[in-house]
Automatic annotation (TrEMBL):
Transition state stabilizer (site feature) positions: C157
NCBIfam families: eIF-2B_rel, PRK05720.1, salvage_mtnA
Name of this chain's protein: Methylthioribose-1-phosphate isomerase
Primary role: Catalyzes the interconversion of methylthioribose-1-phosphate (MTR-1-P) into methylthioribulose-1-phosphate (MTRu-1-P).
E.C. designation(s): 5.3.1.23
Keywords noted in UniProt: Amino-acid biosynthesis, Isomerase, Methionine biosynthesis
Residues of the signal peptide: none
Molecular function in Gene Ontology: S-methyl-5-thioribose-1-phosphate isomerase activity
Pfam families: IF-2B (PF01008)
Active site residues of this protein: D237
Catalysed reaction, written as an equation: 5-(methylsulfanyl)-alpha-D-ribose 1-phosphate = 5-(methylsulfanyl)-D-ribulose 1-phosphate
EC category: isomerase
Pathway this chain belongs to: Amino-acid biosynthesis; L-methionine biosynthesis via salvage pathway; L-methionine from S-methyl-5-thio-alpha-D-ribose 1-phosphate: step 1/6
């Protein structure tokens, strides 16, 4: 990445405004917790791990200007700010995981003064950011073993440096394979309606010097049929205990196609994306977004006035379509329920 997706410097939270890519690489400083909420909701910062990191730092943004005489008031404020940020988007579990980590600091340091607790909270948020960089590189190393030399990878949406602090999960695997000297080419689904594939993945890979070919989402079957794809790697927003995986709308379709063509389908994600409270993907909350993104997404109206629109932002790929999970703790193969539990543990 030319600049980090999320930067915490001099107590300021700065993010790349991803809504402006690929035309303008512009960063904005989020000064209030409302700015952070809005940036997450509007996808200025997006991608499950990046949302989690932004939210953790968003808690600091939300509490830093208050003078706390006693720790009770501070703890109450942390809870209030975290609960507010939790309403920004529903599907990526990393958001709730990061906010829970921030709230847990208050419980862990139950005898700390308000000033001491403030310092611990700042340290936790920065740790979440720093860990993301290391975790993505570990995912990259682990997944690189699964990528043969001279292979072509199809990916959907953006699970790259833009979806994390700076390296990516699915694209992290691609970067690691490339850095290991493997000859890798990528097909990027454009990813309607918000075009994360064409706006972000194609931009990011091009910046990195990795050959990338952009395709419309409905071209995926054809490139697979033409034997152009050796493997698929995608990211994830939430993975249930049995391996059912929520990711960007259209991922399920790609997984079905990969199965039909005998192509391995890998999901790359950090442990923070696994949700052991859900036994299957049935109960993963799926965000529905404003129809305007579908009917007016390309700078002009593309459907008749008043048309009915259904726009879920994510779908759930059943575990039986997934070849393996690539995590910072290693690659996980079936049977998923027991192997996910033994590899990821209880977080
Ligand atoms: O709506 P978005 O752009 O936040 O959706 C992002 C995705 O679906 C990514 O594939 C997922 O969050 C994994 S990012 C490492």
């Amino acid at each position: 990445m030319p600049v980090p997706t999320i930067l915490w410097e001099n107590e300021e939270l700065t993010i790349i405004d991803q809504t402006k890519l690929p035309l303008v690489l512009d960063s904005i400083t989020l000064k209030t917790v409302e700015d952070v909420w809005d940036a997450i909701q509007k996808l200025r910062v997006r991608g499950a791990p990046a949302i989690g990191v932004a939210a953790a730092l968003g808690v600091i943004v939300g509490i830093r200007n208050f003078q706390f005489d006693d720790r009770t008031a501070l703890v109450e404020k942390v809870k209030q700010v975290a609960d507010y940020l939790a309403t920004s988007r529903p599907t990526a579990v990393n958001l709730f995981w990061a906010l829970d980590r921030m709230k847990a600091v208050c419980d862990r340091y139950s005898s700390a003064t308000a000033a001491e607790l403030m310092a611990k909270l700042k340290r936790e948020a920065v740790t979440i950011l720093e860990e993301d960089k290391l975790i993505c590189r570990a995912i990259g190393r682990s997944g690189s073993d699964l990528v043969p030399d001279d292979s072509t990878i199809l990916t959907h949406c953006n699970a790259g440096g833009l979806a994390t602090v700076d390296y990516g999960t699915a694209l992290g695997v691609i970067y690691a394979a490339h850095e290991a000297g493997k000859n890798i080419t990528v097909y990027a689904d454009e990813t309607r309606p918000l075009l994360q594939g064409s706006r972000l993945t194609a931009w990011e890979l091009k910046e990195s010097g990795i050959p990338v070919t952009l395709i419309c989402d409905n071209t995926a079957a054809k490139v697979m049929h033409e034997n152009k794809i050796d493997l698929v790697i995608v990211g994830a927003d939430r993975i249930a205990a049995n391996g059912d995986t929520a990711n960007k709308i259209g991922t399920y379709m790609v997984a079905v196609l990969a199965k039909a063509h005998g192509i391995p389908f890998y999901v790359a994600a950090p442990s923070s994306t696994f949700d052991f409270s859900l036994s299957s993907g049935e109960r993963i909350p799926i965000e529905e977004r404003d129809p305007i993104e579908v009917v007016h997404g390309m700078g002009k109206q593309t459907a008749p006035d008043g048309i009915n629109v259904y726009s879920p932002a994510f779908d759930v790929t059943p575990a039986n379509l997934i070849t393996a999970f690539i995590t910072e703790k290693g690659n996980i193969f079936p049977p998923f329920t027991e192997n996910i539990r033994s590899t990821i543990g209880t977080k």
